[in-house]
Amino acid sequence: MNDAELTPSELLMACGRQDQKAFQRLYEKTSSNLYAVCLRILKNEATAQECLQEAYIKVWNHASRYQPERAQATTWMTTICRNLAIDTLRKLGKEGARAGDFELENLHDERAEDVMFHSTDARLLERCMEELREQQRQVVRLAYYDGMTHGELSAHLDIPLGTIKTWIRRALEQLKLCLG
Amino acid sequence: MSGIRQQHNDALRDALASEYILGTLQGKARKRFEKILDSDPELRLRVQEWSHRLAPLSSGLKPVTPPKTVWKRIQAQLPQKRFSLHSLLRMWGNLNFWRGLSMATASLLVAFISVSLLPIQQVAKSDEMMVVVNNKFAQPVWIIETSAKDEMMKVKTLRSVDVGPDKACALWLTWDDGMTMSLGMLPEKTGMMEMKKPPMPGRSLDKAKVVVSLEPMHDDDKSAINGPLLFSEKFISI
Q1: Which CATH number does the domain housing residue A134 bear?
Q2: What ipTM describes this predicted complex?
Q3: B contact test, residue of A35, A61, A138, A157 with most B CBs within 10 A
Q4: Which residues of B are less than 8 Å from A112 in CB distance?
């Protein structure tokens, strides 16, 4: 079987054996999704590219620790990518991270509800999100896609901090119940 | 009583895991949580479950193809491939290896004879090369790419630069024998631009150092580096 036919999980495991060709195939298969995640959070092309670069180096260095029975490769890689993007956002400050790319906000401002959901998991999550109250759904999306903290959500929506925390906690409990 | 405490503890652990994945667990609390994660497999499992639950939110985003330079930069950071003793021994005993070697030797001989008849410029390396210029915080600021055959150098500015009024970052190539060539002033705003390489007869790019210095904005002296050095590194082949 050649690399083109391998799944991201198989490619990631090959990376754990220091297979650079498999790493390149993995990058070709997954980088556009992970770049979208970096861009969505950081909203600056240069910072998002650095984040993507750092994420793939981390993927390469930690690939031997990946356990396919615990998570899908794409989920594992997305978590690495999101954590780095959120850390970058905090380290540089929102304005620092996002300076200079104001038009990007419009280019990539596609909310999850605007795009097609393909997998069964994704359709189920979308249905569960629809069952949340409008405010709960909004805070979950702002936190997930924009990396907003409780305090930032409170300021952004002009809602008391305690209320924001309650909305998020209840939203996540409800999602867990709905997703089973 | 202990059952209630356990239940409360469970709920709290789950809430922390969920907010860690959502991204709302921040600052010192996030760092403390990550430290606990290192030694708490049950908590790691909860985090993995939440990661799996919320992952489809990311898959809902429209894919965006990153520029090719990102992969080149990643590739430059990977360890260089080396032959292990084991693989060499395995090749030694392999018939195909010897067949390949004899064919390669014959091809090499033909190539050597042909190349010997060509002018020197045509056998110069055409490998692409790049260098990443970092700032003092080790953050990449410029990516400079070129090849021996290109007349231009591509300069990508990843972050805006402010070196103060009437100052600019000058780009140079220097060689060990003291030869210095000015390439001009580096851009200060993010974006892509091309800079013309001066003619460099008999000079090899892979022997050159890429140097950045801080110079007066309208400095007319292009023959020598006068300002403080900010960066000095050789190109890497890609």
Answers
A1: 1.10.10.10
A2: 0.80
A3: A35
A4: 57, 60-61
Distance CA A99, CA A44 (A): 7
Within 8 A by CB and 6+ apart from B160, the residues are: A99, A100, B188, B189, B190
CA-to-CA distance for A168 and A165, rounded, in angstroms? 5
Which residues 4-43 on chain A approach chain B with CB closer than 8 angstroms?
A: 18, 20, 23-24, 27, 31-33, 35-37, 39-40
How many residues are there in chain A? 180
Same domain, A98 and A122: no
Q: Which of A37, A121, A149 sits opposite B61 (nearest CB)?
A: A37
pTM for this model (two decimals): 0.56
Q: What is the pLDDT of residues A29-69, one digit of tens each?
A: 999 999 999 998 888 899 999 999 999 999 999 999 888 87
How far is residue A2's CA from residue B238's CA, in Å, rounded to a whole number?
24
Domain encompassing residue A13? 1-103
For residue A139, give both structure tokens.
């805070």
Q: Does B8 touch chain A (CB under 8 A)?
A: no
How large a percentage of chain A has pLDDT more than 90?
A: 53
* CA A152/CA A142 separation, integer angstroms: 10
